Every structure is written in C-alpha cells, then in structure tokens.
C-alpha cells in the first residue's frame, strides 16, 4: 500500500499488475481488503493477524511482489546507483559488510548473486536470504520484461514461489546466478552449522531472525565500526560472541539440531552413553540425546529450547570445540570460495 510510515515512503509495488489479473487472481482478494481498510489498517490487522487463513493470504500474495519490486527499485533509484540489494522483513543485513563486499565487485558486469536453491528443476536465489543485482543486470531484466510482462503475469499466477518466479525471469533474460553462500545465507546465529571451513567468511545476511538476535548482531557491528576495525565481521566473530558463550557440556530440554550419525539406545542407556558414542568419533563435536536415540554432529550449532515433553538433552564436546577455535587463523579477506 502506498503510504508514509515514520518518514519513509512505502511503495505499492503491486500497483502495476494488470487490472485483469488483479480481478482474476484469488490472491488479490487480500490486497483489496487491505485497501478497503486503508484508514484502519492497524485495527484490521489486529482483528485478523492471528488467524491462519489471514496469514496464509499474506503469504499467497507475497509471490506477486518479486518481479515488480526489482522493476520499481530501478525506477526509483538514483542515476548513479550501482547495486540493488533486496531483503525480506525478517532478514538482517550486516550493512558494513555489504559495502565492503560490493567494493570488491565490478558493478558494470551483469551480476546476480544469492543463495542458490533448485526447485521444480528451476535454479533461483532463495528470497529470505536476500539477493544482489548490479545495475546492468536490472536494466537487462527490465528490457527483457518490456515485451514479456503479460506472459510473466500468467507464469506468476500459475506458480507458488516468488523467488522461483524471479529466478526464472532472470534466467530467461540471460542472467545466471552466482552462488554467494556463506555471505548471503538463510540461517540465524542459533541455527547456523559452524565448521572450521565456515569461520573466516564475512557474513552479509541472516534470515528468520528475531529482535534479540538482531540487536545482538547490530551491537557487535557497531562495536566493530566504533573501534575502526578494518576487517569485515566474520562468522567466526558471530560464533565467538553470540554462540560459544552459550555452549555447555550439557543443557536439558534443548535441541542443538544434531543431524549426523544416529545410534539406537536401550531403555537403560542415557545421556552419558550418548556422550560416549560422540567421544568415540574423533570428529564429533556435539550430540543430542532423546529416549532410545543418540544423534551426533560434526558441526557446532547452538539450537534452541525444546518442549520438555521431548526429553531432549543436548551436549557439546567443549574440549574439541576449544581446539577448533584455537586453530582458526583468518588471514586477509575471504569473499569467495576461491579467495
């Protein structure tokens, strides 16, 4: 909806969708309801926001924004804009790292960077992780769209995922996707699988992130900036500040997302037996015990609190993790897998 919000102009990127499609596509019922209640949006949202059908309607409409938001970004951009970075509402952007990253890139090239995903045989950039386009890439997409808009509206209507739709359009426009993991990625500090190989990469985005983690990362970034640290904020820095201090040999009612080798246990075997299995694997750094099952992992993940009914107990091999930490030596700036 076109409106002013706390000094920011909010664009209705769906305004350019054809009237015929707005009338026929069922997702636009929600769009019309929003506009009918434009003078009482807060009340309208409060009345409906906790209902599954209402939330589903918002999700269904979401697919229509991906092509128009790129087109509108080019339309509204300053003449000297070189890069376009797109993120979702629950994506956190490490802005200082983004600026350092694009400084390494040539904006004059046709560049489309993101976290690659394949679905229904279509390669695309996962929307929640964010995606980066150079100005020439956006211009080439816009030129390609000139004669194809009606076709792509039909394609969007027949598809389910907006980021897949955008990936298809960009591919048809001759723009290939460049893998940008782990700079652009879909995890939070709590769900990231930390390995030694990951640690020295800068981090540009986090996804599905809550307000507490947003503030924690923001505070760390501001410390970096205030101290004049020239190096980018690394996954290793996030791990040391936000993850490592919360690890422990044992945490009850906790799921650390261990997803490696599984060992079946007897009813008489418990947490200590699970720990022993992990000790026997020299590369195991964490494990998760539930009744009759032990799951081990060779990467470190914090995870989150589990429902007490699951009887989930998580453990970390702190000695091994300390050895990994001590062995990490980040030299220079590693912006791609070939650096």
TrEMBL record:
The record's keywords, sorted A to Z, are: Glycosyltransferase, Membrane, Nucleotide-binding, Signal-anchor, Transferase, Transmembrane, Transmembrane helix
Lipid bilayer topology: Single-pass type II membrane protein
Domain of life here?
Eukaryota
* TM region positions: none
Pathway annotation from the record? Protein modification; protein glycosylation
Concerning InterPro entries, the annotation shows: C1GALT1/C1GALT1_chp1, Fringe-like_glycosylTrfase
This chain's protein is named N-acetylgalactosaminide beta-1,3-galactosyltransferase
């Amino acid at each position: 909806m076109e409106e002013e919000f706390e000094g920011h102009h909010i664009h209705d990127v769906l305004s350019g969708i054809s009237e015929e499609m707005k009338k026929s596509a069922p997702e636009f019922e929600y769009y019309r309801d929003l506009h009918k209640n434009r003078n009482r949006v807060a009340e309208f949202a409060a009345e409906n926001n906790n209902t599954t059908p209402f939330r589903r309607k918002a999700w269904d409409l979401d697919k229509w924004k991906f092509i128009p938001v790129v087109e509108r970004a080019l339309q509204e951009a300053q003449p000297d804009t070189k890069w376009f970075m797109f993120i979702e509402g629950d994506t956190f952007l490490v802005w200082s790292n983004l600026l350092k990253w694009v400084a390494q890139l040539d904006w004059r090239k046709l560049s489309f960077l993101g976290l690659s995903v394949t679905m229904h045989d279509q390669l695309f950039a996962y929307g929640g992780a964010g995606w980066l386009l150079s100005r020439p890439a956006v211009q080439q997409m816009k030129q390609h769209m000139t004669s194809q808009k009606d076709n792509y509206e039909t394609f969007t209507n027949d598809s389910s995922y907006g980021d897949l739709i955008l990936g298809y359009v960009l591919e048809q426009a001759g723009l290939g996707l460049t893998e940008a993991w782990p700079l652009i990625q879909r995890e939070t500090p709590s769900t990231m699988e930390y390995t030694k190989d990951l640690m020295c990469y800068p981090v540009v985005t986090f996804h599905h992130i809550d307000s507490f983690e947003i503030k924690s990362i923001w505070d760390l970034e501001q410390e970096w900036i205030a101290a004049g640290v020239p190096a980018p904020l690394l996954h290793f820095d996030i791990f040391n500040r936000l993850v490592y201090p919360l690890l422990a040999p044992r945490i009850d009612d906790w799921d650390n997302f261990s997803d490696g080798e599984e060992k079946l246990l007897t009813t008489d075997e418990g947490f200590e037996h699970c720990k022993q299995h992990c000790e026997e694997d020299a590369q195991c750094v964490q494990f998760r015990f539930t009744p009759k099952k032990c799951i081990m992992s060779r990467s470190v993940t914090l995870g989150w609190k589990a429902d007490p009914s699951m009887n989930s107990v998580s453990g970390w091999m702190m000695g091994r993790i300390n050895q990994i930490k001590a062995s990490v030596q980040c030299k220079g700036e590693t912006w791609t897998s070939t650096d």
